[in-house]
Amino acid sequence: MWGRFNRNRNGRNAAFKALSVTLLVRESNYWNNILPEQESQMITRHIREHGFDLRLNETLKEIKGDANGRVTSIITGNDEEIPCQIVGLTAGVSPNIQFLKDSGIKTDRGVVINQHMHTSIDDILPPRLCTVSTCIARQTCN
Predict the structure, then answer these.
(1) Mean pLDDT of 88-107
(2) Quick check: 41 and 29 in contact, CB under 8 A?
(3) pTM given for the model
(4) d(CA 8, CA 24)
(5) Closest Cα to residue 30, out of 15, 8, 10?
(6) Taking residues 64-80, what's their average pLDDT?
(7) Which of 34, 86, 116, 117 has the largest count of CB atoms under 10 Å?
């Protein structure tokens, strides 16, 4: 659940050094294309509570620089200019599970697994990064 946020070391380390950090997120909450709404809202609150300027439903339109090629600001999708010295970009990721459509393996936002990493079909193990746990997402561990 914390993987993507923890991998954002540039932002996290800058915040600890008392620099102003702005994160632009296309979604209505951080990582809500992967997590259930409640968990996504919790992470959004956590990020903001730790001093990040989190801009939801926002995109990057342009990066501006000076004559020496150094970044000076960004322009958001809403045409707001935000001064900056560093820009870090990450690609959005979603599991490629379309090929499982008619396989009988249960899917949601990924391959659905239980607390033992089992799929809905015995002896079929899912790719680690393409899973949704019924324990975390639905609190239905048995």
Answers:
(1) 82
(2) yes
(3) 0.59
(4) 13
(5) 8
(6) 95
(7) 34
